[in-house]
Amino acid sequence: MQVLEPAGSRIVTKTIEKPNAAGLTMPPSAKERPQTSEIIAVGPEVIGGFKVGDIVCHTRFAVNEVELEDTTVMIIKEEDILATVKQTKEKK
Predict the structure, then answer these.
(1) Spatial contact of 65 and 72, defined as CB atoms under 8 Å apart
(2) What is the pLDDT of residues 37-68, one digit of tens each?
(3) Nearest Cα to 74, choosing from 47, 36, 25, 21?
(4) pLDDT of the residue at 28
């Protein structure tokens, strides 16, 4: 099994594919920007509190895509992450 260990303040993510309103899953290249992805590895110099499993938003232009064992992953600089997606508790 191959594992990417990001250098410096870089983060490795994988795309979260969700069906659209018609129930079709669109390829990452067809999605609008910014893109949402899940962090799968964090570099040793990341200081923003990001961790594996976090869902983040970033622009499509800020990534370097890498093929890793039949999966495309993205390497992103920490400074290019726009936001973290947080789940909130619904009020009743």
Answers:
(1) yes
(2) 999 999 999 999 999 999 999 988 888 999 98
(3) 36
(4) 56
Q: What is the pLDDT of residue 25?
A: 58
Is 36 a domain residue? Answer: yes
Whether residue 29 has pLDDT greater than 60: no
Residue 62 forms part of a structural domain = yes
Residue 68 lies in a domain: yes
Eight-class DSSP state of 28 = G
Instruction: Tell me the CATH number at 55.
Output: 2.30.33.40
CA 88 to chain centre: 20
Which domain, by its residues, includes 54? Answer: 10-16+32-85
Q: Which residue(s) pair with 9 in the sheet?
A: none
Distance separating alpha carbons of residues 15 and 38, to the nearest angstrom: 6
Here the tokens at position 57 are 């938003």
Q: Determine the average pLDDT of the residues in 82-86.
A: 92
Distances in Å between the Cα of 26 and the Cα atoms of 17, 22, 75 are 7, 10, 21
